[in-house]
Write a structure and sequence with these properties.
CATH class of the largest domain in chain B: Alpha Beta
Helix content of chain A: 55-70%
Strand order of the largest sheet of chain A: 6-8-9-11-10
Strand content of chain B: 15-25%
CATH architecture of the largest domain in chain A: 2-Layer Sandwich
Shape of chain B: globular
Radius of gyration of chain B: 18 Å
Order of helices and strands of chain B: EHEHEEEHEHEHEEEEHEHHHEE
Largest interface: A-B, 34 and 34 residues
CATH topology of the largest domain in chain B: Rossmann fold
Helix content of chain B: 40-55%
Radius of gyration of chain A: 48 Å
Shape of chain A: rod-shaped
Oligomer: heterodimer
Order of helices and strands of chain A: HHEEEEHHHEHHEEHEEHEE
Strand content of chain A: 15-25%
Largest sheet of chain B: 5 strands, parallel
Number of helices of chain B: 9
Chain lengths: 422, 224
């Protein structure tokens, strides 16, 4: 989730909750105020009624002036009680309008005038007041809603503006490539934290780059410098082998030393080749017919294909010509085909080679299981059954990367498939 | 057959001189361009082995000098760099062959033989041993007066072994000479061994039994 979305969600939820609580409180206050106001009116009506009764004016005469319903009843009781407020809902039916539930509040009291006891009810409708309260709430609600939306949008705008240097930094780090010797340049910002972040990232990348180059240089130097002593050792052992009269033990030691040296030598050669590809030492290209190239490579491997009685199926869907370095193409095709032969069934396996306008795929039956994709193209991730150096796939990957191509691996029913999209 | 070896690295130079001498060549050596040109002016050589990287310049200069003054001479250039440019430049100015360091000494010997044969020095286009004769022009092998029917690979192996007659050839060197960059695969397939087996069988059929000895774990020798 994006940072801005997350902060927006939180602020929106808090604002809405706060506003909802506020509205609830306001509504309750309004209702209470309303009740108090009505009670005041009812009490003032009571005073007027009592006054009227005392001065002998007929109650009915001033009823119309009061705007409230008044019911007066004469009773025979001597004891009287004081004010009683009652609230109830009255169901009103009228012919002209639809049925209505009207909230009523009434004041019930008893009074003695000229020795006669009266029970008086003053009744007032709460509905009007309540409606006003609801109107107020609706207005407040609409206002709040609009302010939430405005706040939300404003917040987004401001955040986007404030965080823009951060996103700039992020996108630049994302596209940063250690292999390209580029120095990161960030948007200037007046926010201290972002400034610090940019400076830290700059320092870090500079450090990483320096370390990377040192390491790379070191590996290259080691490989190159090792070449000469290695070849001297190899030659000397070959010369030692020319001597005869070795004991069985000496003979064995010599053979083992020679084999290990050969292995080390091949390994070093492979590493140098990888470095040379990385250092773009194979830039010169020529236009090569891929169909012809594939045919040639397969022909050279004919001995090995025959030895395992492998059936090679070639499907050339189109004639493809590519501008590519001939050395790299040879390494690429050789490694693809050699792997397909080496890891094939001991007998009667198949290799399917398919060439399309933009892709070449090599499928082979195999004794080995699916290869773990994660480490597939890593150096020295060798299959347990092979005695090889484990550089083949890594070379394929390096060449594919060099041309900005793309290689995929899939495994289905005991068949390994490598496909290169060109 | 006199060969000039121009190489500044002492250890390698000594090995090359020793190995080629054992194969019947007379060897001189030089360590700089200057001393090499001096020697070339004084003595007539059949072939020169030129290292490209010399302390006082590029060996290419020597190749140019040879081609100008003694175009008959065979030239093999040797370089530590596996670079295509050096190879192309070397061959363009007239070098006969090209070797990349490091190389198997047996490979060098085979190349020297092949260059000398192509340049037709002393009519040496036949490798002759007791009971066996290899005609490298016609690509024919005659053993006990019978022409052998060899496959291409068998023939190549035989010539390679015969051009290093007294030396032990490791199976790696043999695989590299015959299968090139597929050598690793050839060794893993035991191809060298099976070819040798066929070759020996064909020689046995015509009663030639003294040649090609298997040295366990190491390689092969053409003769004792």
């Amino acid at each position: 989730m994006k940072l801005l979305t997350k902060t927006n969600i939180y602020t929106t939820i808090t604002t809405v909750l706060l506003f909802a609580m506020g509205i609830f409180v306001v509504y309750q206050v309004i209702l209470q105020k309303l009740d108090k106001e009505v009670d005041k009116q009812l009490l003032s009506a009571k005073t007027k009624i009592v006054k009227g009764l005392n001065s002998g004016i007929l109650p009915n005469e001033f009823l119309s002036n009061l705007g409230q319903k008044v019911y007066i009843k004469k009773i025979d009781k001597q004891t009287i009680f004081d004010n009683k407020f009652i609230e109830y809902i009255e169901h009103q039916t009228s012919a002209s309008k639809s049925d209505e539930d009207i909230l009523q509040r009434e004041l019930l009291f008893q009074t003695v005038v000229d020795g006669k006891t009266y029970e008086i009810t003053v009744c007032s409708s709460l509905t009007e007041g309540k409606k006003t309260g609801e109107y107020i709430i609706v207005v407040v609600l609409v206002f709040l809603l609009v302010s939430v939306i405005i706040l939300f949008l404003l917040n987004r705008l401001i955040s986007a503006f404030i965080w823009s240097p951060f996103y700039d930094t992020l996108s630049k780090i994302k596209t940063w490539n250690i292999k390209k010797n580029e120095i990161l340049d960030f948007k200037t910002t007046d926010i201290d934290e972002f400034h610090l972040l940019n400076d830290t990232v700059k320092d870090l990348t500079r450090q990483i780059q320096a370390d990377y180059h040192n390491l790379k240089e070191f590996t290259e130097n080691v490989s190159h410098e090792a070449q000469t002593p290695l070849s001297i050792i190899s030659t000397k052992i070959e010369l030692l082998m020319q001597e005869s009269n070795y004991s069985e033990k000496q003979h064995k030691l010599l053979v083992q030393t020679y084999n290990a040296t050969q292995r080390l030598y091949k390994l070093n050669e492979g590493l140098i080749l990888l470095t040379r590809i990385e250092n773009k030492q194979f830039v010169e290209t020529s236009s090569i017919d891929l169909v012809q190239a594939i045919e040639e490579k397969i022909e050279v491997l004919e001995d090995f294909i025959e030895a395992k009685q492998i059936i090679v199926e070639k499907t050339f869907n189109t004639q493809v010509t590519k501008d590519i370095n001939p050395v790299l193409l040879t390494i690429l095709l050789n490694n693809l085909f050699i792997n397909a032969i080496k890891y094939n069934l001991e007998k009667n396996g198949t290799i399917k080679i398919t060439l399309n306008e933009d892709s070449i795929s090599v499928e082979n039956t195999s004794i080995s299981d699916k290869i773990d994709k994660q480490f597939l193209f890593d150096r020295f991730n060798k299959n347990s059954i092979s005695g090889s150096l484990g550089l083949g796939l890594s070379l394929i990957k390096k060449i594919v990367d060099f041309y900005n191509w793309h290689v995929t691996y899939s495994h289905k029913d005991g068949t390994h498939k490598f496909k290169i999209y060109m | 057959m006199r060969i000039l070896i121009i190489e500044d690295e002492k250890s390698l130079r000594e090995d090359v001189v020793d190995y080629l001498s054992e194969n019947g060549y007379k060897c001189d050596f030089a360590t700089t361009i200057k001393s090499a040109i001096q020697k070339l002016n004084d003595v007539v050589y059949s072939c020169a082995l030129v290292d490209v990287g010399l302390p006082d310049g590029s060996g290419i200069e020597i190749v140019e000098h040879i081609k100008k003054n003694n175009p008959e001479m065979g030239v093999i250039i040797v370089t530590a760099k596996n670079s295509l440019e050096d190879k192309l430049q070397g061959l363009k100015i007239g070098a006969d062959d090209y070797l990349t360091k490091p190389f198997h000494l047996s490979e060098l010997s085979a190349r020297v033989y092949s260059v000398l044969r192509r340049r037709n020095f002393g009519g040496k286009n036949k490798l002759v041993f007791e009971g066996i004769e290899i005609d490298t022009t016609e690509k024919k092998v005659i053993a006990n007066n019978i022409q052998l029917q060899l496959t291409k690979k068998e023939y190549e192996i035989l010539v390679y072994l015969a051009s290093n007659p007294t030396h032990l050839i490791t199976k790696e060197a043999l695989a590299e000479a015959i299968w090139g960059d597929k050598a690793e695969m050839a060794t893993s397939f035991d191809f060298v061994y099976s070819q040798i087996k066929n070759l020996k069988k064909k020689l046995n059929e015509v009663d030639v039994k003294n040649y090609i000895k298997v040295v366990y774990g190491m390689g092969y020798k053409f003769k004792e």
